[in-house]
Amino acid sequence: MLRYVWRAPNLRAGAPLHQLVCSAQKSTVTAATANKNRVARKSTVAPIDSHHAPPVLLNFQDGRTAYQSKNTLELFRSRVVLKLCGNDLIVNNNEKLLKLSRMILPQRLFEYIMRMTFYGQFVGGIDVDDLKPKLEKMKEHGVRPILDYSVEADLKEDDADEEVPDVVITNVQFTPDMITSSRDTHQVVARAYPYKGEESCEMNLKIFLECLETAHEACDRDAFSAIKITGLGKPNALLEGSQFLWQIRELFLEFSDIYEHTLPKSINLDVLPRDVLGPETPVVQKRMSLDHLKDMLRKFGADISDSEIEEIFAAMEPSQRGLVKFHKFREYCMPGPPAKPLYTILTNLRNPEGHRRLHDITDEHLQALNRVEQRLHVLCDRALELDAKILIDAEQTYFQPMIDFFSNKLMPRYNKDKAIVFNTYQCYLKRTPSALMYDLDKAEALGYTLGAKLVRGAYMEQERMRAEDLGYPDPIFPDKASTNSCYHNMVEILMNPLEKKGCEVMIASHNEFSIQYVVERMRQANISPSEGGIYFGQLLGMCDQVTYLLGAGGYNSYKYVPYGPIEAVLPYLSRRAYENKGMLKGSKKEIELLKGELKRRRYGLLPN
Description:
By secondary structure, the chain is an alpha/beta fold. It is 51% helix and 9% strand. The protein has an eight-stranded parallel β-barrel, surrounded by seven helices. 46% of the residues are buried.
């Protein structure tokens, strides 16, 4: 048995983050070079239990462990499909090729070819019964599923006749008529559910519940299911709600200030690079005083007396410390039911140009948002009964404020003892550090467990071009290095709460360095691989050299497993092919590992 040791003396607990990253990068490169010619040799990874154990380098070149669950035909398919996904001509025309194939081939032949290629590679099966053999095989090798019913809208077709919705726009980034055009213009790289009335939302709710049940059956513990909130409600209502929440945030930032000792003890801004935090003061650092509230209402000419303002402020801040946090201010600005006093006042205020400073949400959209919340409670109640977990996926920035709001509202109720609800943080967004620190502060203040899923992000092209078209600041970090820095810094922000059982986190990444980085930080903090509240997730059909190695080492390792009828998941396959192209441009390692494994099996060096 060989055990690969990551010898990096500077990777010590408490070392500055930049030192940890630089040392780890140098060590990873050295170790990877040393292991280059050892691919054919057997290796295993033992769980790390001791804080004093030497750092362990996960051998991501261990093809035997990575592909032990696959037969030779599956390996051959993986290699062919992943190579095709790196071909620009095929990927850029994949939708046309799929439609042409459907037209000229008999249905049974088309479905057989899809099962033997793209569908078989990236999709778990047609239905729950079709899924079970694959899930059982994963379970044998220490890997559990994150189930997702992957029926998606073909946006170019579904939205072609969509009318510009009835949303009054006061913030340009929430312009609704750009949603359709941006979808038509750019490659679709994330899930979107077709909205065809409330009946479709009820159908999606039933599907999400079925995913939860199946995940629970397939997992001995910590079952996960992924959902998208846009599948549970009217998009225009989510859009208007997001604009409303954004305006509340802007008001608070304008009429608040930084005071000493406003950060939670678990957050140390000194270790975070300035370029990650950005030019804007994180909302978690700011507080609103009584004078701030008076200034705000007087500036916009509110017809309200000082005693009434003092009464509202006292309701927001009953402890009489004199400072209000953002989450409390937002709570008193919400429309209800019943409506909070500030909602009625602020939605009638106007700026010098005569426009409302805070535009209210229409009654129709309020009812639609209430129905979304009711559906979320049905899901979370069932998850609590099953002891399962729900991953709420991130979406475009014009929906995200409302998604964050729902996630934050669910966690105090369902995450009392451990995380049931997880919100997703896209680390390519400049706002993510501020958002994560705010959510941590709220969780610490209210005494619940934060559930966080860290991803890099899936909407970069669309978000950037939309910002350029509409003339608002680009919400994305300028380069890949900045995104990577944000990702690792968000891990650092979460480490202290993780040690104190104040949060749980899903590391959703295919980046081997990021996985190695988190594993090393777990060792330093003496966090158990299986019981420490850290989970690792990769997509089905990709990155097996990471998933199965983690599973063999006793870590909480997951595959994101989509399922659904072949015809219905074609938009998902189109999107996956486009995403794979970008990933494969950066590395051919997985294809080479598959090639090496096939050679070993061919020459009888390995069974299967």
